[in-house]
C-alpha cells in the first residue's frame, strides 16, 4: 500500500473541518483522548475530550430538570425550536453535509441528502405538534366519558451510529422535543464533530425562539458512556441504533430497570426479482441499494433472490454497472463509492468473501481494495458473489458492499428464502404482476418492517414508520405514528353524573 498524499491531504482536511465547525457556529471542542479520524485518508482530524462519568450524570440531571418545565410548554410552542432548527439546517445544508463526508466518508450527494432528511423530519414534527391526538371511547356507564390522553414521557437517550451520523439523531430528537421530552445524545465515537455541530445548531435554535436550550444535552465517548446512559433510571426511553450485538446488551439492561427501548439494529435485506420484472429498472435500483454508501446502510441490499430464467441477464447488467462505478475520494466530483469507515470493516468484508467462496460461491466481480489513498484508508470495489445456497455467511450481516446472488424456481420458495434470516428490516420485489406484488406484501409474504415493490431496499421516506422485526429490534422511528414511542398513554374516565355505577354491572352496596 502507498501512503502518498491524496488530492486533499489530511492537513487540508483538518483545516477544513475546523472551518466548517466555525461556519456552523460550533466552538472547537476541547482536545482530549478521543481521536477523530477521517476515513478519506485514515488519518486524524483532531482530538476531543470524552465525557467523564460525572459529565454524563450532570447531562442527564440537566435534561431531567429541564423536562419538568418543558413538558407543560404547549406542543405547538415546543415546535418552534424544531422549526428554527430546520431553518438553520437549510441555511447550512452544504456545510453540514461536507462535515458528514469528512467524518463518515459519504459522497457529497448522499451526505447532503442526509441533511435534507433532517429538514424533512423537522417539518414533519412541526405539523405533528398539532396532531398528538387521543381518543374518546363510548362508556358503558351513563353520565361518564371515557378517553385517552398522551403525555410527555421524560428524558430520551439517543445512541446513534456512524453511518447516518445526523439523520437518525434528527428522527428521534425532532419527535421527542415536540412530544415534550428532553434529549441526551450519545453519538458514535467515529463521528463526534457532526454531533458537536448539530448540538450547537439546536441549542442556538432554542435560544433564538426564547426557549430553554437545556432540553438537549450531548455526551461523547465510547461504550462506557453509552452504558451509563442505558443504566440510568432517569432516562425513560433509550433509542439505540447499531448492531444486533449492541441491542442484545442494551435491551435487557433497560428492561431490568423497567425503562423503554426503541431499537434499530441489523438488516440483511433482500430483493426478489421475478421473470416479469423490468430488468433495466431493477438493475438500476439494485446497484444503488447494494453499492450506495459503500454498503454501510442498515437498509443496504445484501441478498438478491432471482428467478432462474432471468438471473443471467440481470447479473450481467449489475456486473457491468459495478465495473463503471467510480470508487474514490468522496469529496471529488463523479465519485459514487467512498471509503469504508475503517480497517475492521475491510477485514470483515474480506473474511466474508473468503467464507462465501469456501461455501461454493463464485466471485462475479469486485471485492478488491483500491490503492493509492494511504495505508489507513480502506476503499474497496463493491462485490457480487453468486451463491449455490443461503449459507451461514449469507445469513449474517456484513456491513460492507457484498451482494449475494441466489436463485429460485417458485415464488413461495423465494419468499421462504427471503424470510430465512434472523434480521427483518427492509425488502423489495421487482415484478410487473399485481398478484406477485400482493403475495409479497401479504401476511405470509415478506416478514420485514419495510416491504417495497419495484424500488430498492434503501432510501425510505420520512412519512412512513422506519424499523424492522426479528433481530432488527422491532422499533419504529420517523413518520406515521412513531411519535407514540416518545409519549405515555393515560386512560381517563370522567363521571359527570351524580350517580356512581360500577363497570361490568357490579353491585357493591
Please characterize this protein's 3D structure.
With 509 residues, the chain is α/β, with parallel strands linked by helices. The protein has 2 domains: 9-265 and 473-490, Aldehyde Dehydrogenase, Chain A, domain 1, CATH 3.40.605; 269-462, Aldehyde Dehydrogenase, Chain A, domain 2, CATH 3.40.309.10. Helix content is 39%, strand content 20%. It has 15 helices and 23 strands. The strands form 7 sheets. Strands 12-15-16-11-10-18-19 form a 7-stranded mixed sheet, with helices on both faces. A 5-stranded parallel sheet has the order 7-6-5-8-9, sandwiched between helices. Residues 1-5 have low confidence and may be disordered.
Number of spatially distinct domains? 2
CATH topology of the largest domain: Aldehyde Dehydrogenase, Chain A, domain 1
What is the CA–CA distance across the termini? 88 Å
Oligomerization state of this entry? single chain
* Helical amount: 25-40%
Continuous helix count: 15
- Fraction of residues in β-strands: 15-25%
**Which shape, going by the Cα principal axes?**
globular
Reading off the top of the CATH hierarchy, the class of the largest domain is best stated as Alpha Beta
What is the H level of CATH, i.e. the homologous superfamily of the largest domain? Aldehyde Dehydrogenase, Chain A, domain 1
Amino acid at each position: 500500500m502507498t501512503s502518498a498524499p491524496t488530492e486533499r491531504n489530511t492537513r487540508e482536511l483538518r483545516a477544513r473541518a475546523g472551518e466548517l465547525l466555525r461556519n456552523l457556529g460550533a466552538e472547537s471542542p476541547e482536545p482530549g483522548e478521543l481521536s477523530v479520524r477521517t476515513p478519506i485518508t485514515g488519518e486524524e482530524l483532531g482530538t476531543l475530550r470524552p465525557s467523564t462519568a460525572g459529565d454524563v450524570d450532570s447531562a442527564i440531571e440537566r435534561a431531567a430538570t429541564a423536562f419538568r418545565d418543558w413538558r407543560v410548554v404547549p406542543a405547538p410552542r415546543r415546535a418552534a425550536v424544531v422549526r428554527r432548527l430546520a431553518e438553520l439546517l437549510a441555511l447550512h445544508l452544504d456545510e453540514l453535509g461536507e462535515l458528514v463526508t469528512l467524518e463518515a466518508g459519504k459522497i457529497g450527494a448522499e451526505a447532503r441528502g442526509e441533511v435534507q432528511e433532517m429538514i424533512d423530519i423537522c417539518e414533519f414534527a412541526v405539523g405533528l405538534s398539532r396532531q398528538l391526538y387521543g381518543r374518546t371511547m363510548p362508556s358503558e356507564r351513563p353520565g361518564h366519558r371515557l378517553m385517552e390522553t398522551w403525555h410527555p414521557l421524560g428524558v430520551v437517550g439517543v445512541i446513534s451510529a456512524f453511518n447516518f451520523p445526523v439523520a437518525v439523531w434528527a428522527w428521534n430528537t425532532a419527535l421527542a422535543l415536540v412530544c415534550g421530552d428532553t434529549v441526551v445524545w450519545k453519538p458514535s465515537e467515529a463521528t463526534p464533530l457532526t454531533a458537536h455541530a448539530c448540538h450547537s445548531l439546536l441549542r442556538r435554535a432554542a435560544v433564538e425562539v426564547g426557549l430553554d436550550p437545556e432540553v438537549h444535552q450531548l455526551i461523547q465517548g465510547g461504550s462506557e458512556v453509552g452504558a451509563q446512559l442505558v443504566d440510568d433510571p432517569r432516562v425513560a426511553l433509550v433509542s439505540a441504533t447499531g448492531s444486533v450485538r449492541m441491542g442484545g446488551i442494551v435491551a435487557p439492561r433497560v428492561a431490568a430497570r423497567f425503562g423503554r427501548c426503541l431499537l434499530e439494529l441489523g438488516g440483511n435485506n433482500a430483493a426478489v426479482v421475478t421473470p416479469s420484472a423490468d430488468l433495466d429498472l431493477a438493475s438500476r435500483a439494485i446497484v444503488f441499494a447494494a453499492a450506495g454508501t459503500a454498503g454501510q446502510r442498515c437498509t443496504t441490499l445484501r441478498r438478491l433472490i432471482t428467478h432462474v430464467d432471468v438471473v443471467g441477464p440481470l447479473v450481467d447488467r449489475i456486473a457491468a454497472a459495478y465495473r463503471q462505478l467510480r470508487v474514490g475520494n468522496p469529496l471529488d466530483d463523479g465519485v459514487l463509492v467512498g471509503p469504508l469507515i475503517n480497517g475492521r470493516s475491510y477485514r470483515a468484508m474480506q473474511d466474508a468473501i473468503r467464507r462465501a467462496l469456501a461455501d461454493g460461491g463464485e466471485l462475479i466481480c469486485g471485492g478488491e481494495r483500491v490503492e493509492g489513498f494511504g495505508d489507513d484508508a480502506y476503499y474497496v470495489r463493491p462485490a457480487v458473489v453468486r451463491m449455490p445456497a443461503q449459507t451461514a455467511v449469507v445469513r449474517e450481516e456484513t456491513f460492507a458492499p457484498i451482494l449475494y446472488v441466489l436463485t429460485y424456481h417458485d415464488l413461495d420458495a423465494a419468499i421462504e428464502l427471503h424470510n430465512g434470516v434472523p434480521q427483518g428490516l427492509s425488502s423489495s420485489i421487482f415484478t410487473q404482476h399485481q398478484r406477485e406484488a400482493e403475495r409479497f406484501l401479504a401476511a405470509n409474504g415478506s416478514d420485514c418492517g419495510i416491504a417495497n415493490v419495484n424500488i430498492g431496499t434503501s432510501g425510505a421516506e420520512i412519512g412512513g414508520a422506519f424499523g424492522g422485526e426479528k433481530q432488527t429490534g422491532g422499533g419504529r422511528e420517523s413518520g406515521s405514528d412513531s411519535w407514540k414511542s416518545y409519549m405515555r398513554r393515560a386512560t381517563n374516565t370522567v363521571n359527570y353524573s351524580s350517580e356512581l355505577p360500577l363497570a361490568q354491572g357490579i353491585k357493591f352496596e
